[in-house]
Amino acid sequence: QQPLFPFPDALLHTNHPQQAPATALHILQHLFATLSSPSTPHHWDAQARHHLLNHLQHFIHHMEQCLPAKGMLFKRQGPRNLLLSINKYFRDIQDFLHAHNHSACAWDHVRLEARVCFQRIDVLIRQMK
């Protein structure tokens, strides 16, 4: 079956030392924005969601401290289309939610995709070590 949101896997393969953390940071920022939406389903555990958002914010802050100025991340280090690929990937997710009226079923697809994103962030973090 074709994935609903094809992840730009080229983002996981980079030789530049700052590209992996910059990509991970950008994905984390988009995940935070998506999962902090007021349209998330009411049946989701609010305390667990709040806990997750706090952790995401903590990791985002930590990674921002470790990287050069945000404007320099993708300008100096690799093709700009990597940043655009991340933006398009998350725009596709937002469009999917909108097309399905932010239904609980649509959010379940997004929740599963967020899990995949965390796995890809793990790959990127391993590249940083």
Please tag this protein with its features.
129 residues, mainly alpha, Growth Hormone, Chain: A, 5 helices
How would you describe this structure to a colleague?
The chain is an all-alpha fold and 129 residues long. The protein has helices spanning 19-35, 46-66, 70-76, 80-99, 104-128. It has a single domain, classed as Growth Hormone, Chain: A (Up-down Bundle), CATH 1.20.1250. It is found in: Secreted. Belongs to the alpha/beta interferon family. Its main location: secreted.
Number of strands: 0
CATH architecture: Up-down Bundle
Which word captures the global form?
globular
Largest sheet: none
Mean of the pLDDT scores?
Answer: 84
CATH topology assignment: Growth Hormone, Chain: A
Note the topology.
Blueprint (H helix, E strand, L loop, with lengths): L18 H17 L10 H21 L3 H7 L3 H20 L4 H25 L1
Family: Belongs to the alpha/beta interferon family.
Protein name: IFN protein
Subcellular location: Secreted
